[in-house]
Each structure stands twice: as structure tokens, then as C-alpha cells.
Amino acid sequence: MEKLKILREFSLFENIPTAALEPLASYFIPRRFERGERLWREGNEALSFVFVVEGQVKIVKYRNDGGETILGVFGADEVVGHLAVYRQIPYPASAYALEDTLTLQIHRSHFFGTIRDHSALMEALLQDMMQRNQELVGRLHDLSVSDTEQRLALLFMKFAESVGRRVAQESGEMGVVVELPLSRAEIACLINVRVETAIRFMSKWGKEGLVRTDGGGFTILDYERLSALARAMG
What we know:
By secondary structure, the chain is an alpha+beta fold. Helices cover 43% and strands 25% of the residues.
């Protein structure tokens, strides 16, 4: 495995000089998880940074009633659970592989011990933390949107932008395939609505030729219309 080349795919490291990144790369350890396998449990000590190389990871918070709230879904070239590692606090939620997943992991002592000697790495870390805070603010804004259909449209657009793949349809129009095996219940959790509500809107979209869903993910059939739906109600 060419760890240095793989790490370059992550925004945190894309502009880091090779001389600074090479010492850090040597500490990364590959680890694979099968679909449904837990990466960590809520309350575990956050000891390592986890970089997703292949696959998908969901972050889950369990409620007192036994239900779950999905806080986010992360794919290739993203880092998961890093805020807890930064702050050296226990993980506030659990993480599971949505599909067979390959990660690169580095213990926080090796990470922080190395970046202290490289100003470029330290600056990149600070920039990354600022970006994550902005993403959290955006996530809170999305959940504050009162219209359920808009929240669902915003969620699907974010999936399309992060893990979508453009494909030509039989009609000649371009669609976006998102290979993300989320159940209706998991989608409902992500926008904080009842499962029945999410199913109703997704069925409506299917009949309107907006989005087609299947067990392996979904296809946005009319990207422009879904994008307009996400924006128009804001």
C-alpha cells in the first residue's frame, strides 16, 4: 500500500510538502472493517485518527428509548471521529461500517508528536478544524429548516456532491448515482423525521421521476430540479 499517495487524497494533506508528510505516513496502519462492524463504541477513549480510504462509515447516537440518531455518513477521503481525538475526550457517538471499509489509522501520540516539528502540518490541522466547525454549523442549519421535503432534498444533494457519480440515462439526460446502502429508517434519522414521513416523500419523488431508490443506494434522475427544491424553500 502506497500510504503517502493515499494520504495525498485527503484535503488535510494535499498541500503538505513530502518531507513533512513522509515521517507521518510511516505511522499509519491499515485496518479493514466488514459491513455492519463497529469501529468504536460511544464512550470509548478516542486514541486514533481514522481516515476512510474505501467504503462508508455512519456515526450513530443511541437515544434513551433505544432508537438511534444518525449524525453523519462519511466516505472515501474523509476523516471520522477526529474532533474527539483533537480534544482528547471519549467518543460522543458510535461508528459502524455501512459496507466493507478500508481505513488508515494513526495513534494521536504519533500524530501530535510529528506535527509539532512541522509548521505546515500544524497550519493544515488548524484549517481543517475551522472547516469542520463550519460543517457543523451547516448541519445545524439544515436541521433547523422547518420544511421536511427541503431537508430531505438538502441531504440527497450533499450525498450527490460527496459520493455521487454522474451517469448518462436512456433519456439522454445526466443522472447522479449514489451508492450508499442506507435504509429508509437511517435516512429518516439523518433529517430527524419519522420513517413514514421519509418514505412518503421518497415515494412521491419516485412517481415524479425525481429520484429512484433501490437496496444499494439511489439515483437522482433530475439533478437540477432536486437542487432547485433544496434551494427554493430556504
